[in-house]
UniProtKB/TrEMBL annotation:
Record's protein name: Putative fatty acid methyltransferase
Organism listed in the record: Tepidimonas aquatica
Coiled coil: none
Residues of the signal peptide: none
Superkingdom classification of source: Bacteria
Domain DUF7884: 40-93
Catalytic activity, EC: 2.1.1.-
Family statement drawn from the similarity comment of this UniProt entry: Belongs to the CFA/CMAS family.
Family matches, as SUPFAM superfamilies: S-adenosyl-L-methionine-dependent methyltransferases
C-alpha cells in the first residue's frame, strides 16, 4: 500500500527532525513481495522498542498519538510492541508529549456530566468489572496478603509484602485504633486490613465491598484465620451501611465515588462515625487543581478500559468536600513516591509472570493490565497523579481533645 508507506515515511521524517529515539516501526502487511517494511526513528545498533503496525486502524493512533489512542490500538491488537515495558512507556510519552495539542484534558463540563452517571447499579457494575477478573489473577502479582493499594516504604528498601504490612499498620496507628474498638473498612478488598486490625490491634471489624470475588475470598480468609466472631465481611454499598463505628477507613475506594458526590460520601462517613471517632481516607488524586484528568489521554484510557466512571479530585477538592461533609482534616500525607514504587514492583511481578497471566485471562485483558500498571507507575513518578492519606474527625469538636503532636503516628508500636 504505497499511500500507507508514504504516510509512515512522512511521519518518520518529522520525528527524526525532533528526536533521536531508539524506536523502530514495522508495517506488518509489508510490500507486494510480502516482506514487511521497517523505519528507524533514530541512530542505534539495535532498537529498544519495536512497534509493529498490524492494520490500517492503528495508523491514526500512530500518526496522531495520545496515550489513550496508542493504548487502545495495543489493547485491541491493532499494533504490537516489543521491548522492556519501561522503555515502551518512555517511547510512548516522548511521542505524545510532542503531540500534546491533540490530547487535551477533559473539560470541567464533561466531568460534571460524567459525574451524574453515578448510581448504586453503575458503581456496582464498575467495581465488578475491575475487581472480578479473577482472584488468582490478582494473587499472581500482588503480595501474599493481596493488598491492592499504595504500600508504605518506611526506609525504601522493603520488599512488597513488608511495605504493605507497614502501610496497614501506618493507617491503623494513625487512627489510634485500640482493643475493643469497632472499625468499618469501606472497600475492604480481600480483607487484609480488617484481618490485621482484629489480629494485631484487637478491633471488631466490618468490611464492605461490591466485588463478589473479593467478598467470597475475604470471608474465606476470615474463617481460615478463626476470626469470624470478630470480623464481618459484607457485599454492601457504603451508602447502605447503618450504625456507628469508633473508627472508619477507606483505602483506594473514593476514586469510584465521583466528583459530584464527594460531599455526600464524607457526610455518610461523618454520620457513621462516633462523636470521638477518627477516620482515614486514603485515595488517589489528580495533580490538576481544576480536577482535570491525567494528561495526554491517560485518564481517558483508564476510564474506558480499567476504571469505568472513576474520577480523581485534586487534594484541595478533597479537603473542601471533607469539610462540607462535616469532617475536620487533622493530618495530610502525600505518598506519591510510595505509590510509584508500589506500581513498579507490581509491574515487575506482572512482567515476570507474563506467560502464566496470559493463560489466565483473554489476551485483551492481559494487555490492558500490562500497560495500566506500567503507565500508572510512570504517572506517579512524574507527578501526574498523587495519593494522599487524610486523617480526620468530626468537625466542631474542642481543640483541647487533639494531641499536641503527631509523634504517636511514627513512634508507637503497632497495636500497643
Amino acid at each position: 500500500m504505497p499511500t500507507i508507506d508514504k504516510a509512515i515515511d512522512a511521519w518518520v521524517q518529522r520525528w527524526r527532525q525532533r528526536f533521536d529515539l531508539p524506536l523502530r516501526v514495522v508495517w506488518g502487511t509489508g510490500n507486494a513481495d510480502g516482506a514487511p517494511r521497517a523505519w528507524d526513528l533514530g541512530r542505534f545498533d539495535e532498537p529498544k522498542v519495536v512497534i509493529t503496525v498490524r492494520d490500517v486502524a492503528a495508523l491514526s493512533a500512530l500518526l496522531n498519538p495520545s496515550l489513550d489512542s496508542l493504548g487502545e490500538a495495543y489493547v485491541e491488537g491493532h499494533l504490537d510492541v516489543e521491548g522492556d515495558i519501561d522503555d515502551v512507556l518512555a517511547m510512548a510519552h516522548a511521542l505524545v508529549r510532542d503531540n500534546a495539542a491533540h490530547a487535551g484534558s477533559t473539560t470541567l463540563l464533561q466531568r460534571v456530566v460524567k459525574g451524574l452517571k453515578h448510581s448504586r447499579k453503575l458503581d456496582r457494575e464498575a467495581i465488578q468489572y475491575h475487581y472480578d477478573v479473577s482472584n488468582d489473577f490478582y494473587a499472581t502479582w500482588l503480595d501474599p496478603a493481596m493488598v491492592y493499594s499504595c504500600a508504605y516504604f518506611e526506609h525504601g528498601d522493603e520488599d512488597l509484602a513488608t511495605a504493605q504490612r507497614k502501610k496497614i499498620d501506618h493507617i491503623l496507628t494513625k487512627i489510634r485504633l485500640q482493643p475493643g474498638h469497632t472499625l468499618l473498612d469501606i472497600g475492604c478488598g480481600w480483607g487484609a486490613l480488617v484481618l490485621r486490625a482484629a489480629q494485631k490491634f484487637g478491633a471488631r471489624c466490618v468490611g464492605i465491598t461490591l466485588s463478589q470475588a473479593q467478598y467470597e475470598l475475604a470471608r474465606q480468609r476470615v474463617a481460615d484465620a478463626g476470626l469470624a466472631d470478630r470480623i464481618e465481611i459484607r457485599l454492601q454499598d457504603y451508602r447502605d451501611v447503618e450504625g456507628t463505628f469508633d473508627r472508619i477507613t477507606s483505602v483506594g475506594m473514593f476514586e469510584h465515588v465521583g466528583l459530584q458526590h464527594l460531599s455526600q460520601y464524607f457526610r455518610i462517613i461523618r454520620d457513621r462515625l462516633a462523636p470521638d471517632g477518627w477516620a482515614m481516607n486514603h485515595g488517589i488524586t489528580t495533580t490538576d487543581p481544576a480536577d482535570g484528568e491525567t494528561p495526554y489521554g491517560g485518564g481517558r484510557f483508564i476510564d474506558k478500559y480499567v476504571f469505568p466512571h472513576g474520577e480523581l479530585p485534586h487534594i484541595a477538592t478533597v479537603l473542601r468536600t471533607m469539610q462540607e461533609g462535616g469532617l475536620e482534616a487533622f493530618d495530610v500525607e502525600n505518598l506519591r513516591r510510595h505509590y510509584a514504587r508500589t506500581l513498579t514492583l507490581w509491574s515487575r511481578n506482572f512482567e515476570g509472570q507474563s506467560q502464566r497471566l496470559r493463560g489466565m485471562v483473554p489476551e485483551r485483558i492481559w494487555r490492558i493490565w500490562r500497560v495500566y500498571l506500567a503507565g500508572c507507575a510512570w504517572a506517579f513518578e512524574h507527578d501526574q497523579i498523587a495519593v494522599y492519606q487524610v486523617l480526620c474527625r468530626p468537625a466542631g469538636r474542642s481543640a483541647q481533645e487533639l494531641p499536641w503532636s503527631r509523634r504517636w503516628i511514627y513512634d508507637a508500636q503497632p497495636g500497643a
